[in-house]
Amino acid sequence: MRALGTADSPPAKGGAPIHTSVPCKMIVFDHPLLVFACSFLALWLATLAGATVLTRWHHLKPAIRSDFGTILVTTLTLNGLIIGFTFSMAIGRYEQRKNYEEAEANAIGTEYVRADLMTAPDDAAKVRALLQEYVHQRVLYYLADDDNEIRQNTSRTSALQRQLWTAVRNSAATQPTVISALTVAGMNDVLNSQGYTQASWWNRIPTSAWILMAAIAVISHVLVGYGTRNAKSEHLLLMVLPLVVSISFLLIADIDSPRSGIIRVIPQNLMSLSRSMEVR
Question: Which terminal Cβ of the chain has fewer Cβ within 10 Å, N or C?
Answer without folding.
Answer: C
